[in-house]
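Input record, target 12 of the design panel.
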C-alpha cells in the first residue's frame, strides 16, 4: 500500500495494544551508524570476528571488543534521542502503546521518555557490563576506564569474564524478554516497525507473528524490507521525519525529554 501518513496515523492513533519493533535505523539521526547501510558498522568491522564463542575463547578477541567499544561506546552513551524516539514516547503518553521491542543497545528510547518497563532490549544494552559467570552488572564507563588504564582482559571478582551486556551473534537471547516480546506481538492490534532491515532472527519474525494474530502492520524504513508485502502501510523514508509527521497528524506534542 502506498506510503500514506494519514492511514498510518489512523492505525497507530486508534491502537489499543500497539507494539513497536525498532532497529538501528531509528538511531541513525542521533548520530549512531546502523549495521547494514553503506558505511554502517558491518562495513567497518567483520561480524564474524565478534561472535560470542570467539569472545569467550580468546583474550585477543576480547581486547578487540573493548577496543571497538573505546570508540563506539562514548558515541552511544552521549547520543541524544531524535524525533522518532520522541514520537514513540508521545504515543505511550497518549495511551495504547503496549511495548517497544528494540534491537538497539543505545538506551535512546528510555532517554526520550519511554518507560523502561515498556521497553524490551532484546539484544541487550551497550551501556552496562555483565559477568558471564555470576551475572554481576556494572556501568560500562568504569570497565572501559579499566581497559584504558591497561587491564586488557577485564574479569569479575568471581573470576568470570566481563562482557558488554549486549547479545552477540551466537549468544543466547534473553529468554524472559524474548518470550514477552512474542506474547505482546500475539496480543497486539497494531504493530509498527521503525528502522530495521528485518533480517536478524528471532527479532525479524516478531512482526509476522503480530500479523498472523490479526494486527495491522505499519513499516517505516528507508529501504524495502522482506515484510513490506505483509504491511497495511509502508512509509519509505527517514524515520524522524515520518514519525514527526504522524505525531503532527495526531496532534501529539513531541516535547524534548
Ligand atoms: N530512517 C529510516 N530508516 C533508516 C534510517 C533512518 N534515518 N537509517 C537507516 N535506516 C534503515 C536502513 O535502510 C536499514 O534497512 O534501517 C535499517 C537498519 O538495518 P540494520 O542496519 O540491519 O539494523 P537492524 O535491523 O537493527 O539490525 C538487526 O543485526 O547486527 C545485528 O545485533 C545487530 O540489532 C542488530 C541486528
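The sequence produced for target 12 reads:
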Amino acid at each position: 500500500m502506498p506510503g500514506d501518513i494519514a492511514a498510518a496515523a489512523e492505525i497507530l492513533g486508534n491502537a489499543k495494544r500497539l507494539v513497536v519493533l525498532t532497529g538501528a535505523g531509528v538511531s541513525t539521526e542521533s548520530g549512531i551508524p546502523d549495521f547494514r547501510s553503506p558505511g554502517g558498522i558491518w562495513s567497518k568491522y567483520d561480524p564474524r570476528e565478534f561472535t560470542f564463542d570467539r569472545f569467550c575463547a580468546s583474550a585477543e578477541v576480547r581486547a578487540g571488543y573493548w577496543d571497538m567499544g573505546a570508540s563506539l561506546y562514548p558515541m552511544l552513551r552521549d547520543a541524544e534521542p531524535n524525533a522518532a524516539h520522541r514520537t514513540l514516547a508521545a504515543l505511550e503518553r497518549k495511551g495504547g502503546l503496549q511495548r517497544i521491542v528494540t534491537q538497539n543497545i543505545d538506551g535512546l528510547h528510555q532517554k526520550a521518555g519511554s518507560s523502561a518497563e515498556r521497553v524490551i532490549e532484546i539484544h541487550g544494552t551497550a551501556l552496562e557490563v555483565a559477568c558471564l559467570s555470576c551475572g554481576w552488572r556494572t556501568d560500562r564507563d568504569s570497565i572501559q576506564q579499566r581497559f584504558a588504564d591497561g587491564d586488557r582482559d577485564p574479569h569479575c571478582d568471581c573470576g568470570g569474564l566481563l562482557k558488554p551486556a549486549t547479545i552477540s551473534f551466537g549468544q543466547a537471547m534473553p529468554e524472559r524478554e524474548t518470550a514477552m516480546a512474542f506474547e505482546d506481538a500475539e496480543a497486539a492490534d497494531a504493530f509498527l516497525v521503525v528502522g530495521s532491515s528485518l533480517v536478524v532472527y528471532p527479532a525479524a519474525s516478531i512482526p509476522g507473528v503480530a500479523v498472523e494474530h490479526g494486527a495491522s502492520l505499519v513499516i517505516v524504513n528507508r529501504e524495502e524490507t522482506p515484510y513490506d508485502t505483509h504491511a497495511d502501510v509502508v512509509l519509505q523514508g527517514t524515520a524522524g521525519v515520518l514519525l514527526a509527521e504522524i505525531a503532527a497528524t495526531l496532534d501529539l506534542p513531541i516535547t524534548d525529554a
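The chain has two domains: 1-32+81-123+173-257, 37-78+128-166.
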